[in-house]
Amino acid sequence: MSIKITLEKCIGCGSCVSVCPGSLIEVSGGKAAIYDPKRCWGCASCVKECPVQAIALYLGEDIGGLGGKLTVRQENTLLYWTVLLPSGEIKTIITDRQKSNQY
Ligand code: SF4
Ligand code: SF4
């Protein structure tokens, strides 16, 4: 399991660096990079923090993710979890950060 960073979108803010519990991401030359993807355990913290949706979490077929890519957009307390499947199908789940105990 790992993430993919779209460099064209990355603004080099460093938010992903500060939240990764494994310290796997660094910003160099104004762009983020994951330098040891095999150690990523897919917690999605960086995906949630990125303000420009530059980070996608790869959802492998081995975990039932069908090879999709997960991104998260935040509006106030709401998180819009979007999965883009290889077929082009898009699925979105909306959760509220203030009601996280419900999920
Ligand atoms: S998904 Fe979690 S472990 Fe993987 S790079 Fe992002 S913050 Fe780090
Ligand atoms: S949080 Fe997003 S925009 Fe900021 S450095 Fe990381 S990938 Fe780039």
From TrEMBL:
Gene3D superfamilies: 3.30.70.20
Domain named 4Fe-4S ferredoxin-type: residues: 1-30, 31-60
UniProt keywords, alphabetically: 4Fe-4S, Electron transport, Iron, Iron-sulfur, Metal-binding, Repeat, Transport
Domain of life: Bacteria
GO molecular function: 4 iron, 4 sulfur cluster binding; metal ion binding
PANTHER family per the UniProt record, alphabetical: ADENYLYLSULFATE REDUCTASE, BETA SUBUNIT, L-ASPARTATE SEMIALDEHYDE SULFURTRANSFERASE IRON-SULFUR SUBUNIT
Protein name: Adenylylsulfate reductase subunit B
